Amino acid sequence: MNMVIHLLLSLPLFQLSHALSVRQHSLVTSIPTNNNNLLGRAPPVLPSGWVYKSCVREPSSGRTLTGYSFTSSSMTVDLCVSACATRGYSLAGAEYANECYCGSSFAGAATGGGSVPPESECNMPCAGDSSQTCGAGNRLSVYANGQIPSGTPALPPGWSSTSKCITEASSGRALTGNSFTSQSLTLDQCVDVCDQTGFRYAGAEYGAECYCSNTISTANGGGVEVAASECNMNCAGNSQQKCGAGFRITLFSKTPNSNPLPTGWTENFCTVDQSARVLDGYSYTDGSSMTPATCIVACAQRNFLLAGVENGSECYCGNTIKQAYPTKDADCRVPCSGDDTQFCGGGWRLMVYIKAPGAPSGPNAWTLTSGGNSGVVMTHVAVTTSDTMLVIDRKENNPLLKADGKPAWGAVWNLQSNTARPLNIVTHSFCSSGNFLSNGTLANFGGHPYTERNGEAVSDGQQGIRLFNPCAASGNCDIYENPTRIRLSSDRWYPSSARLHDGSVIILGGQITAGWTNSESVNNPSYEFFPAKNINGYNGLQIPSQFFKDTLPHNTFPHVFALPSKKLFVAANNQAMLLDWENNIETRLPNFPNGQRVVYPMNAAGVLLPLTPANNYTPEILICGGSHLSDTLKGEEIDAQHDYASAQCSRMVLDAAGIAAGWQIEYMPEPRIMAEGVLLPNGKVVILNGGKTGTAGYANSKYRIGDSNADNPTFTPLLYDPSLPAGQRFTQFNMPTSNIGRLYHSVATLLPSGAILIGGSNPNDDMETRPWPSEYRVEYLNPSYMFAERPTYTGLPTMVNYGATFTLSVSIPSPTATVKAVLMDLGFITHSVHMDQKAVELVSTLSADRKTLTVVGPPNAPVYSPGPGWIYVVSGDIPSVAQKLMIGTGASPPKDDAATANMLANTASPISGPHRKRHARRRYLL
């Protein structure tokens, strides 16, 4: 065997990869070029005190300069050395034509790192100036600065050189972000790591510990400034520096940018760019004076709403995102040509900036108003009457108390008085699904394991079925449970469900216990029905589904929509299918493009667009946001603050031609995880809530804010008009901006009034006040039509059957606007999933005098499943206040007593039996 091949095959995988990369580099570096000085060329212009050192070897694995690094197709020695110098490093190395590495010492000496080869081995011209040399394959052209005093920390740009000494918390930490311990710690290293990972505070403690954060917690005595002399312990890596002491932190902070962005502009996200540009409006290159601010000014002068900088010197403008594949901020850290203390994107990496929409004004302005305190976190909600809404949370220390003085986790919310009435729930209803039955009863399915908290035990809710018959706001209706007779056939945590054309409900997927994501050992890859059915050979029991095996690990709380074909659309992970539940046939649809993942913990907004006579009630699905992160990543590998969500929207018509064409892609102006998609009566969609970075869940990711796996809330809603051409459908113009972060466990729902209720957010294990807190504040988003002269109507019957005609007496303010009746199911909302949300335009005829509207009920049950609905009369874009009616006969869904008996005989009560108690000692981090 060839000796080289034998050597490579004997190496461990990571060394083999490095050896191969070395070999590949050497094949392309046989360029007869020597060091600049040897050729007699003029040396690069270097910062004061910097000189050329030598050609230096990389170690056999890793890097010899381990500080800041970047790549640039415009790389020069000047650019590399300046970038390292401004960040306080004393060594700068240019490698392989377009790479720059910074450090203050050489690492990897045991395997050759920092050793000096012949100068001729550094022979690659710099990508940005062929007269300069930028190393070669695994060879660095190294420059050094010997002027930095050893005891004075060299800090990255923007960091104050003055430190202070603060106290550490007696329990917990004053700095709650990233942390590490190093027996060679220096202040320079600690601050640099915090800067590289996006934090604004860096603290060194007890000689060898480094902590990063964006906030300073004052809990438990932390964060109090004390005398500088109390931070008196030498740094482990530099005895001339002080790195805190026991319970004392040497604290550095990042100062505000000295070159602020123009008013109203903010950093949006870093994304991969391609030859078909993310922003395809005006563009220019400036190799000497580019900064984010100068680019933004150029774009703003041309009336663009988006600006982006790339590769240090390039500026791009646009009004819409043409494509986007978000990546980490660290990929957008090439120094700007006009100010190397600032960053201007990267090589094929665009940092996008966005202009805020400004304060709403004029007749088309939307408003945001406060709506009281919910008392329980609004984690699951469903509008039940014109004045009430059901709210379900989990067993936690909520301020709303039941009659027994213990915290409630369910309530009826009064939409008029903005007050909550506590409910009495037996089994743990957290993490459940819900739907109205054909008789108007709301059914709530599945839930959370057995929980003991605040001196109260709550029975396992994973097999639970809870029934609620709505009553007037003045009533005392409550949750009904009878687990010995009414239950699911299997445990379901994070299931989804849908009302079917016979008025019953199908419940799909979920896990058999709680966890951040699903796995084969806890997966529940099946579906079942309530009431139980004897179908497809499964008499009242769950029916296996291959789809829920193939979509592991991210397949809980799937998006499910009942379609006019009687089939179901189901989406999980980055896959989708049509489920013919009557025959147990799964038909796969095209996967979501670009690896877009659309359900928990990478939740996207999902909407079934309006069904209308004009589109022959042909369904069309819209899915916006989510994440492009790999589903193989563990929670602790995901960065809550810097892993961007998806900005992608995928839209597909569910007929033969639409499926053949596949998902059509467009982009929101900003990425969103955990967004809500709320249908309006006029056919538009409001996208709101969520964050720009991280994932759903809590206590899993790195760099969390408190326990939240997500950060950077999106405070301004988006309005999407599906009737407009692609590229023109999104706007934030005249939208109000909230100051309340709505992250994990938040909700939004359309109300009969036409307003949107916004509530919840609790990325914590219990009630919490630190960021991001348990959120009890309620808001109402009021579309501009709320302030216009609106249509009104009378004469709505309480019940309308399929194809039946009824007449409404109407008052239409506009003498010319088109008038129609729209039937809506407002749905059951939780975890970004809007179960049964649907809008169906009914066949309507307006009389010549515009005073009578003749309306025909929905054509059949598959178009709108029997059950409650809301009628809005819409004049142009302006809807009336809705009134409730029953579609169908109001009868209960079909019940198969034998199937129910078989289910009961083959399952145990969810609140009895020793197998339920096993959950008692577990702590679930969701």
UniProtKB/TrEMBL annotation:
Sequence ranges of Basic residues compositional bias: 914-926
Every WSC domain range: 49-146, 159-255, 264-356
CDD domains, sorted: E_set_GO_C (cd02851)
Keywords linked to the UniProt accession: Signal
PROSITE patterns linked to this entry: WSC
Signal is among the record's keywords: yes
N-terminal signal peptide: 1-19
Coiled-coil segments: none
The keyword Signal belongs to this UniProt entry's keyword annotation: yes
Top-rank taxon: Eukaryota
SMART domains on file: WSC
Region described as Disordered: spans on this chain: 906-926
Name of protein: WSC domain-containing protein
